[in-house]
Structure formats: structure tokens, C-alpha cells
Amino acid sequence: MRQAILDFPKQFTFSPVVENASGLARKPSVIVAGMGGSHLAADILKAGDPTVNLFIHSDYGLPPWSLARLQETLLIASSYSGNTEETLDAYEAAGDLGMSRAVISVGGRLLEAAERDGVSCIHLPQTGVQPRSAIGLSLVALAKLLGRGDLLAELASLTLTLPAAAFEAPGRKLADELHARVPVIYASSANVAVAANWKIKINETGKSPAFFNVFPELNHNEMTGFDKRDASAPPSSGFAFVFLNDADDHLRTRRRMEVTAELYRARGYAVHEIELEGNTRFERLFNALLLADWTALSLAERYGLESEQVPMVEEFKKLV
Fold first, then answer.
1. Among 179, 236, 188, which Cα is nearest to 206's?
2. Which of 1, 55, 132, 223 pairs with 9 at a CA distance of 20 to 30 A?
3. Active-site choice (177, 258, 275, 317)
4. Is residue 320 part of a domain?
């Protein structure tokens, strides 16, 4: 896992090839069907470019849209392993409706189906890392299928600008402060993908419960649950908060985050504020995610647990 984090910027050197490219039909809207780490690239794309007309579907079948709308949509089935049953189901459902389809995967049944059906696909390199650690590869592949040459160029530059090793020390320091607590990650609604990704990394890599929420919505409900009183102190005392601040956030949202942090500290909670840093939007997003990677890895080490594998997920798959 440590080497995967250090090597992460190299993922943006990936030059994807679209197989069966002649069958790729671009449509006014796009659905990315994917579960777990296989839809994280789409989340980050929307965070980096909110104008993209892209919907993320993490379930069986298809969104409950009209037939006319679905037929004007490109379905991109994204499954890192190629064997995710929900994504395979979405792929087949789209085929039954005659929708345009494309596939991103390292192999498995999904890639076999795409090759069988003559569907455009991108074969991701098998690097041995977990899906949550392969966001760069998946994002480059997604940009290629969308025909986003501008985005491909911007992503390629990240190879030289993301200082992966520089975040190890602050990540380890933050893990020391979060150890034996339940992290809650807060961000603006514009950065919901970053907050969710932090939570996922702490869950899967750090082997710890973690949760996330966004401003300004949480000021209307969740924060009341942390208004610690004597009677409610036991269930709320084990939480620690990470605020992901962004200079581009709405001024009122930044003020809300500042005041909420003050209120939480006044009630005895540990609050850690992190400023998203970087010269471009995607630099800020990925710098924040690299810090999350190091924090999660360090948490796993503090707990004496293996950081890469997800044994409970594998156990679950055998039971369903």
C-alpha cells in the first residue's frame, strides 16, 4: 500500500486505447455504472468539472429514467475486477434497451462481455493495486471515453506536480490524532466526492469506522447530534472531526465551517482543519486524497492491521 501511494502520480502517464472504437457513440448524457472504488473516478471528475453531464449509478439495473432519455445516454460500465454483479447487471440491462455502452475494466466477465458484444472498452493495466488506489488510471480512461482531450492533458501534468511523498509526515501525524476515535469528514457540497473518498479510504485501508457530511446541510441537522450534554456524552465522545477547507468555497460556507469548528471545540471535540492546496482544481483534489491515503495507511499500522486487503468484503461475497 505504501508503494502504491508513492507511485500514484505515475498513473497519469497511462495512455488508454479504446478497443472497438468505431462502436463508441457519444451521447448528450452519460451514466457511469460502478460500485465501490470503481465509481470514484467519476465522482472526482464531477468534482473537478461540475459542468459534465454525468450521472453515477451504484445499484442493479438502470436509473428510473424514461426509455427516451436512456436511449440518449451512454452507459459506461466501470468495474475494476470486471466481476461486480451490480455493474454486470447494469451492462446487460442497457444492452436489452439498445443503449450505447462502453466498458472500463482490467478483465473479468465484464471485459469478456464487451469483447463478445463488440462494445467499446478500455483495458486497464493490471497493477495489483486495489480499486480505491487506481483512481488515476480509471479517471484517465473515463476522460478518453468522453473524448476530453483537454482533461487528458491536464491529468498528464499531475505526474509532475503531485508530491506524493510530501504528505506522508502530515498524514502520519493526523493518524496519531485520529487513533482510537471515529473520524467524521466534513467538506462543502462542492467537495462531497473528496469527503466521501476520505471516508472510504479510512474504512478500507485504515480498517476503521468513518463518516462524512457536507456544508451547509449539516448545519440544519447533524451538528445537533453533537451538542454534547451530560446524558448524551457517552455515545458522542469517541468522535473526531476533519474539516476539508477550500478557498474556492462560497464565503458563507467557509464562515459556517469556521463557526462549526469553534462550536465543536467548545464542546470538547478534536477538530482538525485541512486546507485544500494546489495550483489547479485537480491538484487540490488529489493532494487532499494523497493525504487521506497516508492517514488511512498510518491508522492501519497503528491498529496493527493489514492495510490493502478487504477480508470482510470477500467474506460477504461468499455468503450472498
1. 179
2. 55
3. 317
4. no
Residue 15 identity: S
Residue 154 designated active-site? no
- Is 39 one of the annotated active-site residues of the chain? no
pTM: 0.94
- Residue 1 CB neighbour total at 10 angstroms: 19
Dump strand ranges (E) for the chain. Answer: 18-19, 29-33, 54-57, 73-78, 100-105, 120-123, 182-188, 211-215, 239-245, 270-275
CA–centroid distance for 69 within its chain: 26
Per-residue pLDDT of the chain (320 residues; tens, 9 = 90+): 999 999 999 999 999 999 999 989 989 999 999 999 999 999 999 999 999 999 999 999 999 999 999 999 999 999 999 999 999 999 999 999 999 999 999 999 999 999 999 999 999 999 989 999 999 999 999 999 999 999 999 999 999 999 999 999 999 999 999 999 999 999 999 999 999 999 999 999 999 999 999 999 999 999 999 998 888 888 888 999 999 999 999 999 999 999 999 999 999 999 999 999 999 999 999 999 999 999 999 999 999 999 988 899 999 989 99
Instruction: Look up the CATH number of the domain holding residue 228.
Output: 3.40.50.10490
Are 44 and 114 found together in one domain? yes
> Which domain range does residue 66 map to?
2-159
Catalytic residue chosen out of the listed positions 19, 154, 204, 283:
204
One domain, residues 62 and 208 = no
Number of domains in the chain: 2
